Structures are given as structure tokens and as C-alpha cells.
Amino acid sequence: MNRYVCYTAEGYTVAPNGEDIDNCQILGFVDAEDRHDAIEKLLKRNPWIEKYEFTTYDIVAARIFYED
């Protein structure tokens, strides 16, 4: 089983001086067989992602650990 970090480039944070800064948002970590499976599991387990209108097709699943 592989472990994935799922993130999106949507969103921003506010700096201490009040300026908006574009950034990546980590949405979660998932154990899955592949990237497609990771995103499916992420969305199933975290309904808030769609509730808050993140663009689901822009979510990136990056493998951070794998087993042989």
C-alpha cells in the first residue's frame, strides 16, 4: 500500500501585514494503491472538500511512501 499527500493550489493565506499570499493547501493523507484511488478515498472520507467548493479535478496526490 502507498501513502499519498493530497493537496491543491487553490486558496491563499493572509500574511501578518494583511496581504494575500497564494499557497498550497494540504487536504489530507491517504493510503491507496495509486493516485486515482487516493483522490477517490480522500473525497469519500472528507465531504467538507466538496462542501467548501474546492475544485476536485485540480487535487494532486503525491506518493510519499510505498511498499515493495
- Work out the helix count: 2
- SSE order, one letter for each helix or strand: EEEEHHE
Give a short account of the largest sheet.
3 strands, antiparallel
- How would you sum up the global shape? elongated
Given as residue ranges, the uncertain stretches (5+ residues, pLDDT < 50) are none
Secondary-structure-derived class: alpha+beta
Which range does the strand content fall in?
35-45%
* C-alpha termini separation: 8 Å
Number of strands: 5
Per-chain topology:
Blueprint: E1 2-8, E2 12-14, E3 20-22, E4 25-32, H1 35-45, H2 48-51, E5 60-65
Antiparallel strand pairs: 1-4, 1-5, 2-3
What features would you highlight for this structure?
single chain; about 70 residues; alpha+beta; 3-stranded antiparallel beta sheet; two-stranded antiparallel sheet; 2 helices; about 20% helix; elongated
Short characterization:
By secondary structure, the chain is an alpha+beta fold. Helices cover 22% and strands 40% of the residues.
Folded structure, characterized:
The termini are close together. This protein is of the alpha+beta class and 68 residues long. It has two helices and five strands; from the N terminus they run E-E-E-E-H-H-E. Strands 4-1-5 form a three-stranded antiparallel sheet. The chain is elongated and about 45 Å long. A hairpin with a 5-residue loop joins strand 2 (12-14) and strand 3.
